[in-house]
Amino acid sequence: MGGASSRMGQPKGLLPGPDGRRLIDRAREVLRDAGVEAVLVGRHAAYLEEGPIIEDAIEDAGPLSGLVGLLEHAAGSRVFALACDMPFVTVEDVRALLSSPGSIAAPRRDDRWEPLCAAYRPEVLTLARERLSQGRRSLQGLLKVAETFEVVIPADHLVDWDTPEDVRAS
Known about the structure:
- With 170 residues, the chain is α/β, with parallel strands linked by helices.
- Helix 2 packs antiparallel against helix 4.
- The strands form three sheets. The protein has a four-stranded mixed beta sheet with strand order 3-7-4-8, sandwiched between helices.
- It has helices spanning 23-33, 63-74, 91-98, 124-133, 139-145, 164-169, and strands at 40-41, 53-54, 79-82, 104-106, 108-109, 112-113, 117-120, 148-150.
- The chain has one domain (12-169): Spore Coat Polysaccharide Biosynthesis Protein SpsA, Chain A, CATH 3.90.550.
């Protein structure tokens, strides 16, 4: 799932990761090796040739809209949302989240849920649609009211790259 990359100044998924692979390619491989079909969520011109792309449920409505689009696309299957700017998430992390109970399985980082490294069961779709239609677009809010199960993931695996400074610090 991706955003506009405005703080980074360029599409984050196309950046080289710590191992030299583009972040988008690394994320795809991690998901594939964990048994998850990798799709891109949200339309961004830089990724049009990277397909398949799942449209947000409502254009420019934030990550919750992307999650709704992903859950709709999955047609009743569990999904995994992974931000492409998290270059240290491992296959083992994804498997741990997928094998956990709860409507949502997610780690916490700095006392906040990490909704873009999380597994979502199909029943979350109804609640997510309802919140989106009411203009309550916060993924944090969704995880607070849903049956969310916390999975402990090493903090250094949850580092994300939002700015060039974040990349240099890793």
